Amino acid sequence: MEGKSFWQWRIGFLFLALMETSFATLSPTGINYEVVALANIKAALHDPYNVLESWDVNSVDPCSWRMVTCTNDGYVSSLGLPSQSLSGTLSSGIGNLTNLQSVLLQNNAISGPIPAAIGRLEKLQTLDLSNNSFSGEIPASLGDLKNLNYLRLNNNSITGSCPESLSNLEGLTLVDLSFNNLSGSLPKILARTFKVIGNPLICGPKADNCSAVFPEPLSLPPDGLNGQSDPGTSGRHRMAIAFGASFAAAFSIIIIIALLVWWRYRRNQQIFFDVNEQYDRDACLGHLRRFTFKELRAATDHFNSKNILGSGGFGIVYKGFLNDGTLVAVKRLKDYNAGGGEIQFQTEVETISLAVHKNLLRLSGFCTTENERLLVYPYMPNGNVASRLREHIHGRPALDWARRKKIALGTARGLLYLHEQCDPKIIHRDVKAANILLDGDFEAVVGDFGLAKLLDHRDSHVTTAVRGTVGHIAPEYLSTGQSSEKTDVFGFGILLLELITGQKALNFGRATNQKGIMLDWVKKLHQEGKLNVLVDKDLKGNFDRVELEEMVQVALLCTQFNPLHRPKMSEVMKMLEGDGLAEKWEASQKIETPRSRLCENHPQRYSDYIEESSLVVEAMELSGPSDKRANSRVRITCNNI
Q1: Which SS3 state, helix, strand or coil, does residue 150 take?
Q2: H or E segment at 318?
Q3: Measured between alpha carbons, how far is 115 from 90 in angstroms, rounded to an integer?
Q4: DSSP 3-state helix, strand, coil percentages of the chain (rounded to 5)?
Q5: Contact of 314 with 332, CB cutoff 8 Å
């Protein structure tokens, strides 16, 4: 009996433990609390274009919903709904999404008060409600967000005073309260950038900028010296006093000007240079850590070639061990663009760091010196897709068909977030298998996004520099240097073909029909109905025939020469999930070959865009129009077909 009682007790204990963990996310009726919270948010918003269609209250897992990002353990970590024409109000139910790290609702028409419940989101790092119609006061509860880095409430109709509680937040990088109707005094906000311009009751109606509160000037008592003068003072003495007074006044003015200049410098300076390592090595820029060059040099064993994880158009990536034992990947940028300036580099680094999604590589830190730019990322244990496609584990391919389909979906989600859920949108410009990393669970993680823009400021006054790899670059990008999200869609289509075939985009196989550009080869085999020839031989026939046909069709839709005919990544995502592909494919077959704006006739083959001599260099990297070597090997040909 005692044994039976013991096991009954243990089972009861486990049951209670399970119930306790379940209640953390489930309501008494068994519905996920986070689903309920998101349903409340949806109900309070007006959604004219039905962008929240996938938010189904009957679902038990919101992680597959559009514009919702989750942590690895299934909690909602990010809401990205910028520029979606949403109106209505923001539900206080948002306070139940306690694992939120990022809320991006900018550029909509949401009105009503900012819910005080946001103050319960202890993990929140980014809150952007800018360019809406929020009214009422700023909730004092925002002062409880100890992890907050970026707070943007600008361009709303917020009234009242700025709460004193915001002065308690020590990790703030940016606070923008500009263009509201705030009043009263301003607390001491411990942010590197603090903007309140455009608040007439604080700045005055004619103020151009009141983001800086200068110290009061030193005051001198009027006629102070005259009151001490003696009627019998000699002319020389009076002259000396007058001279002394003039000198004191001039000296005071100099001191005041020096103090103001020093104060403004201290307020606006950007501590970015690794000068003699005279700053706290654990200091941060928002959530980003600033590393010293010495620290990263030691972590990579003086950038030892044995620690190279990969290299490409942006630089070399090294494996590194930090002093605390953390394993990291250190990207040493080869085109550091010192001419672009520290503030410009910092702005782009901050922009990249704000993109938070489970399918995007999260920037952990950075290092800058007078001659170096280095970025630090988490280490991805399974390397990149390009290398894994050619590896085997116990005689089997490291990436089976199921994993390849999972990689395609994960990459699509990451690019969708960059294109349609970031504001401003981020264009990758070099989507390929080598830039898709794999975490410990073989989940796709898009790397190197934003780096093209980060490194191209020197060319901002001319055509944007062409960056990427031949065989992956969209025709219009090769032709004009102008990129768009449709440039990335083309690259994603080529990535799908890499996953299907296991081959490189510039394929130099021994078989005669495989020489040249993969895209042309795939189109030919698809027209001939020989899809089985396409599939990676290492899979040994272990793939889904229906999914193969669907993936090839999606790839061909993505790689249409006219960018206007390519689908958006949101449409690509739906097609990969089995929604709307048949209609899109049928419509594409009715489109006649368009006439190119650059050429008399639009080429029918991708290889017609690439000079024959360029095929000598396999997977050639381009560094921009100024690179004579690259330009000597790539030109646009416009053959009449």
Answers
A1: strand
A2: strand 315-321
A3: 7
A4: 40, 15, 45
A5: no
Q: How far is CA 270 from CA 61, 147, 175, 478, in A?
A: 43, 21, 16, 36
Q: Is 83 left (phi over 0), alpha (psi -120 to 50) or beta?
A: left
Closest to 455 measured CA to CA, from 290, 623, 312: 623
Amino acid symbol at 21: T
Give the C-alpha separation, 34 to 58, whole Å.
Answer: 12
- How many whole angstroms separate alpha carbon 548 and alpha carbon 565? 22
CA-CA-CA-CA dihedral for 555, 560, 564, 568, to nearest 10: 10
pLDDT digits (tens, 9 = 90+) for 288-329: 788 999 999 999 999 998 999 887 667 789 999 999 889 999
pLDDT band at 377 (very low <50, low <70, confident <90, very high): very high
Q: Computed over its alpha carbons, how large is the radius of gyration of the chain?
A: 30
pTM as predicted: 0.60
**Distance from C-alpha of 177 to C-alpha of 186, rounded to nearest angstrom:** 11
Place of tokens 């790092």: 125
8 A C-beta contact, residue 328 and residue 299: yes
Q: Which position has the token pair 């663009």?
A: 337
Candidates 176, 430, 488, 536; catalytic one: 430
Q: b/e map of 120-135 (b: 16 or more CB within 10 Å)?
A: bbebbbbbbbbbbebe
Tell me which amino acid residue 537 is. Answer: K
DSSP H or E segment with residue 316? strand 315-321
Provide DSSP, 203-237: H-TT-S--S--PPPPPP--TTTTGGG--TT--HHH
Can you name the residues that pair with 46 across neighbouring β-strands?
87
Q: How far apart are the first and last CA of the chain?
A: 90
Strand ranges (E), 452-538 = 468-469, 506-508, 515-517
Name the 3-class secondary structure at 309: strand
Count how many residues are written for the chain.
641
Asked if 430 is an active-site residue, the reply is: yes
Contact 163, 185 (CB under 8 A): no
Calculate ∠ Cα 436-336-624, nearest 5°. 70
Q: What is the pLDDT of residue 224?
A: 33
Give the pLDDT score at 136: 95
pLDDT > 50? residue 453: yes
> Could you tell me if 167 and 142 are in contact, meaning their C-beta atoms sit under 8 angstroms apart?
no
User: What's the mean pLDDT in 626-635?
Assistant: 33
> What separation in angstroms does the CA of 546 have from each of 412, 550, 578?
20, 6, 11
The Cα–Cα gap between 510 and 491 comes to: 25
Mean pLDDT for 35-50 is: 91
pLDDT in tens, 582-618: 898 988 887 744 444 444 445 567 666 654 323 333 3
Q: Which residue has the higher pLDDT, 597 or 285?
A: 285
> Which residues make beta-bridge pairs with 176?
152, 195
Q: Tokens standing for 19?
A: 């119930």
For 620, which DSSP code? -
Q: What is the 3-state secondary structure (H, E, C) of 563-591?
A: HHHCCCHHHHHHHHCCCCHHHHHHHHHCC
Strand pairing of 174-176 and 150-152?
Answer: parallel
Chain centre to alpha carbon of residue 536: 33
The whole-number pLDDT of residue 623 equals 37
For 474, phi and psi rounded to 5 degrees? Answer: -65, 145
pLDDT tens track for 540-587 = 899 999 999 999 999 999 999 889 999 999 999 999 988 889 898 988
